[in-house]
Write a structure and sequence with these properties.
This protein folds into two domains: about 55-135, no CATH class; about 150-230. α1 runs parallel beside α7 (about 215-230). The chain contains seven helices and six strands. A hairpin with a 2-residue loop joins β1 (about 30-35) and β2. It starts with 7 loop residues before the first helix and ends with a helix. By secondary structure, it is an alpha+beta fold.
Length: about 230
C-alpha cells in the first residue's frame, strides 16, 4: 500500500488508525511499486520513476540483453499490414517458433494488431522495439515541486494504418488513443488529433482541481475519518 498526502501529520494519523485495525508493517519511504523504482532528491524536490528493472527482466526473458540499442520506438521503413502475415506452411512453421504473442504482451504498440497471425516483418518490428527499450531503459519520469501545469503535445498521420487507411493521432498527457474515423486529409487528421487531446486536457484539469480540493487539510482529515469509520 502507498499512502500519499500533503500533510505528514495526517499521513501518520492514518497509519496509526489503520495499524490499530489491521496487522501492518511500516516499510518507510517507498522504493519500488508495480515494477517501478522510486528515487528521490529531497534537496532538489524531485521524484523519479524508473522501469529499468522491468525492462531488464523483459530483455532477459527474450534473450536480447546485448542487442544493439535503438533511439526510436519504430523506424519509418516499417509499414506493417495484415498482408505480411504468413501465406505458406513453411512461413507458418517458422513463425510458430517465434514467441511473438508473449513478447507483444510485454509491450504496447502497433505490433499488437498482428498477434493472431504475425509474420516475419511484424517480428522484426518487435525486435526493433526491444532494442529501443535496451537504449532507453534508464530513462525516467521526473516530478518536481511548483505549480501543476498541464503540457500537451499532439500529432497525427494520414492513413498510417495500411489495412484500413485510418489515420492515427497521438497526444501526450498521460495516455494516447486511436482516432475513430477515417480522415481524408492531413488537415482533418491533425484536427481530429487536436480535438482528442483537448478533451483529455479538460479531463486532466478537472481531475487535478478535484484532487487539490480533496487534499486541503480539513477536507483530507474528514475523508480519512470517514474512511477509517467505514
Amino acid at each position: 500500500m502507498l499512502i500519499a498526502g500533503s500533510s505528514m501529520r495526517e499521513i501518520n494519523n492514518l497509519k496509526t488508525r489503520l495499524s490499530a485495525a489491521f496487522e501492518m508493517k511500516d516499510l518507510g519511504p517507498a522504493k519500488q511499486i508495480l515494477e517501478m523504482k522510486i528515487s528521490r532528491d529531497r534537496s532538489a524536490g524531485t521524484l523519479n520513476l524508473y522501469q529499468e528493472l522491468y525492462i531488464e527482466k523483459v530483455l532477459s526473458r527474450f534473450w536480447v540483453n546485448d542487442a544493439k540499442p535503438r533511439t526510436t520506438p519504430l523506424a519509418n521503413h516499417f509499414k506493417l499490414s495484415k498482408e505480411q502475415s504468413p501465406k505458406t506452411a513453411e512461413e507458418c512453421d517458422h513463425m510458430a517458433l517465434v514467441p511473438y504473442a508473449s513478447t507483444v504482451g510485454s509491450l504496447i504498440g502497433v505490433v499488437s494488431r498482428y498477434v493472431a497471425n504475425p509474420g516475419k516483418e511484424h517480428w522484426e518490428a518487435v525486435k526493433w522495439l526491444l532494442r529501443y527499450l535496451r537504449g532507453t531503459s534508464s530513462t525516467s519520469l521526473c516530478f518536481g515541486k511548483g505549480n501543476v501545469t498541464l503540457h500537451g503535445f499532439v500529432d497525427a498521420d494520414l492513413g498510417g494504418d495500411v489495412d484500413s487507411s485510418k489515420s492515427t493521432s497521438w497526444y501526450i498527457y498521460t495516455t494516447g488513443r486511436t482516432t475513430k474515423c477515417v480522415s481524408l486529409s492531413f488537415t482533418e487528421a491533425e484536427y481530429v488529433a487536436i480535438a482528442e487531446a483537448e478533451k483529455e486536457k479538460i479531463w486532466q484539469a478537472d481531475y487535478l482541481e478535484e484532487l487539490e480540493t480533496l487534499l486541503i487539510p480539513k477536507a483530507f482529515h474528514d475523508f480519512l475519518i470517514k474512511l477509517v469509520s467505514w
